[in-house]
Amino acid sequence: MASAVQAARLVSRKAHVLPGQLHVTELFFEVPKNHARPEAGTLKLFGRSVRKHERPVVPLSGSELASKEKLPYLVYLEGGPGFGNQDPQSHPLTEVALNRGYQVLYLDSRGTGLSTPINADTVLAQGGPQEQADYLKLFRANSIVRDLEAVRLCLTEDFDDDKKPWSIFGHSFGGFVGLTYLSKYPQGLREVFLTGGLAPIRRTADKVYAATYKKVTQRNVAYYKKYPEDVATVRHLAAHIESHPDGRIPLPSGGQLTAQLFLTLGLAFGGHGGLDEVHSLVLRLAADLDQFGRFTRGSLGALEARIPFDAHPIYALLHEAIYNRLARGAPATNWAALRVGQTLRQFGWLAAGGVTDFLRATAASEPLYFAGEMVYPFHLDPGSAELRPLRDAAEVLAAEDEWDEDLYDEAQLARNEVPVYALSYVDDMYVDFEFARETASLVRGIKVHETNGWYHDAVRSKSAEVLAAIFKLRDDDID
């Protein structure tokens, strides 16, 4: 069990009533930057607490109003790592949860959204590459769950004891965080919901990428089956990029487009409609070349929007680190996605000769495969003007083989008493299904709904069906 946590300090609270009868309270908290060393300074966390705004015929008494303010919390944990929350009125969980008697807390994890966000300037201010890497290591799941527990203690301080534990709903990386929470502070949890978030807790980064490249390959086959004309078009676009000096085209935000960066657009293949999104962008770029002989600013901007690392730096800097589950004894990730990809023929464009050598060595009828949820050094340099200054810190993180603590406690998961409900997707391109099933077997009492009907982003793109399915797991007893 993890060490005790001090309650967060609430520093700002502002309440609003939004259209749709939502009572939203904007909250800022202070928490230690390093929970193990509270004297090292603080970070701010931002969240929005949401409950129904009611206008009864007879005004509520003081005690009735107080009881409304003390409804049980359901906390949404966003995916990533590195993404903040969308507005509550736009989130599909809000209405469903409020109708079930919760109030909902959308808390931006440290470093994301409005919670002391990570950017190049704040990281560079820490000192040299080692100091920068040490700072970034404070933004992993173990720190996130301490923040959550600190905020829980703050918000529920005057709740009755039976209402102090709260429920969490973790999507994707948010589910990884949920498993860390179960490992370290189960006493703070009433129930846990996970969608696409059963972390591969017994697998190294190399094993994870070996599995996910197989799923990415399947999605590429599906893409070129649906859009066979794109075999020639994608090769043509890649060759055009390679024909520029140093194989680079300036991007509107200051980064540099390379053919390899272009081939990371397959990140979208893991979501509903992702094949069509990539085709639409390929079509747009090809139309630019046909009409102007170059890519227009609008098209380059649209391409940049599909590669989210500039706006979400943690996603690039700490993505492989989420698979470092052990404090010691596990190998460094050492750019695992790149190393594993270089061994696969279909992704030969990742090898030293790059895309040009791959095009020369393969027939015109052979497709160029897009990569999926993988982070490569060229995402940072030359791909991103924001992340380029942090390349040295990223190298330190990639070589790191000692972390502050384990992310999961298998012994605690094996004796778990918190109800856990999970949706697991057979065709998940980001979280391998077999590894997810392995993890589920380690959590005592978990109920899992496995399906091949949805992709990883279903909580957003198929929200009504997904939310109905996961709450059905809670509502329906087997016996």
From TrEMBL:
Q: Which GO terms describe its biological process?
A: proteolysis
Instruction: Enumerate the Pfam families for this protein.
Output: Abhydrolase_1 (PF00561)
Q: Which InterPro entries match?
A: AB_hydrolase_1, AB_hydrolase_fold, Peptidase_S33, Serine_prot/Carboxylest_S33
Keywords, alphabetical: Hydrolase
GO terms for molecular function, please?
A: peptidase activity
The AB hydrolase-1 domain sits at 74-222
The Swiss-Prot or TrEMBL record describes its family as follows: Belongs to the peptidase S33 family.
Q: What is this protein called?
A: AB hydrolase-1 domain-containing protein
Please give the organism.
Thermothielavioides terrestris (strain ATCC 38088 / NRRL 8126) (Thielavia terrestris)
Q: What is the lineage of its organism?
A: Eukaryota, Fungi, Dikarya, Ascomycota, Pezizomycotina
